[in-house]
Amino acid sequence: MAINAGSQAYGVDLPPTQYDQDWTTQSPTTTTYTAGQPEVGVNFVAPSSGRVLVTLGAGTRTTTAVTTRAVVTFIVYNDNSDGPVVQAADFNNGITGIGTASVSQYRYVGTFKMISGLTPGRNYYAQMVHRSTAAVAAGVVSIAARDISVIPLT
Amino acid sequence: MTSIKPLSAGTNFRAVDFPRAQFAYDQSTIANWNTATYTVNVAATNPEVAVRCLAPTSGKIGVCISGGPRNNSTVVDRFFLAFRVLEGDPADGTLIQTDDAKWGISNTATSDASDDYSYGGHFTVVGGLTPGVYYYFQSRFRDTVAPVTGTADCAFRTLMAIPLP
User: Fold this and answer.
1) Which positions of chain A have pLDDT values less than 50?
2) Do B109 and A7 touch (CB under 8 A)?
3) Is the pLDDT of residue B5 over 90?
4) Is the bond leading into B23 cis (omega within 30 degrees of zero)?
5) Nearest to B106 among A1, A107, A112 (CB)
6) Would you say residue B123 has pLDDT above 60?
7) Does residue A17 lie in a domain region?
8) Closest-CA distance of chain A to residue B35, Å
9) What is d(CA B82, CA B65) in angstroms, rounded to the nearest whole number?
10) Can you give the CATH number for the domain in which A60 is found?
């Protein structure tokens, strides 16, 4: 079927891109992942391909001369954060600070990861989580900014 | 006036969405940068890195910015590489989103004598754009401690704008 020049069509695929961010400083003190306050996350619908791109961004630093780092990554759940975990928190899917023998300043950077095998049309929740690489006092490891987006892929 | 035409089930078509993704880069090193206000280029050595991109139906464009910043002195200095969004032509366009390193990248900075290059990128979404309108995504940079010399460098800059669903 021909479509005249100037016609506009909006396909059922792809579902909308979703994104969220917060610039409240976080200061993890343990090696257990937490969503922080406020939580940064997005609900999204999987496209026909079952594949989405998850992007993360964060600014991390260590304020004393220790090599402890902040870790910022994400979890994907079915439905919401009470649902079954589809993609567990993984250090290697995220961002870390740089551990040096000197005090470091906030380093802003991002990363991305494709998640596949999702059920088309199903609702999912992608939640940012963070932790420290060792137990430290509050303020030693800090996260200045967090952002996430989920982009349906073909 | 836009007309919306019905399509029969099973019809194959190529939607006008999405407009083309756009990409720009510069691989010349910005050396010893010591200006703490956001700057577009360095005359004669480092050109502007910017793209013009048409907003899709969703009004969302993904921006991927990357670069190679470093701090090579004991002065605790960072190189911020960020971008701003203007509507239409950059000379007279309305500012849609201002520069912020939280949407860009930076090196960390220590008091060590030489921190080497810290390459990285950052992908963020700019939403709420008007479909069918051109926007100008312009990378800009600054250092965090000024005026000092011989500290912040950047090995390369790239900027990509991708229309999103």
Assistant:
1) none
2) no
3) no
4) no
5) A107
6) yes
7) no
8) 18
9) 7
10) 2.60.120
- pLDDT computed for residue B6 by the predictor: 76
Please measure the distance between the N-terminal and C-terminal CA atoms of chain B and give it in whole angstroms: 23
Angle at A7 between CA A3 and CA A8, to 5 degrees: 115
User: What is the CATH T-level fold of the domain B22-163, as seen in this structure?
Assistant: Jelly Rolls (2.60.120)
CA B33 to chain centre: 18
Please list every residue in chain A whose beta carbon sits closer than 8 Å to the beta carbon of residue B122. 57, 108-110
What total number of domains does chain A contain? 1
Instruction: Please report, for chain B, the start and end positions of each structural domain, with discontinuous segments joined by +.
Output: 22-163
Helix (H) or strand (E) holding B69: strand B61-71
Whether A56 and A148 have beta carbons less than 8 Å apart is answered as yes
Q: How far, in Å, CA of B54 to CA of B57, rounded?
A: 10
The domain in which residue A113 lies consists of 24-152
A14 domain-assigned: no
Tracing tokens 């309305």 back to the chain, one arrives at B94
Q: What is the pLDDT of residues B45-69, one digit of tens each?
A: 999 999 999 999 899 999 999 999 9
Identity of the amino acid at A97: G
- Do A33 and A130 touch, CB atoms closer than 8 A? yes
Q: What is the ipTM of this complex?
A: 0.86
One-letter amino acid of A40: V
pTM of the predicted model, to two decimals?
0.88
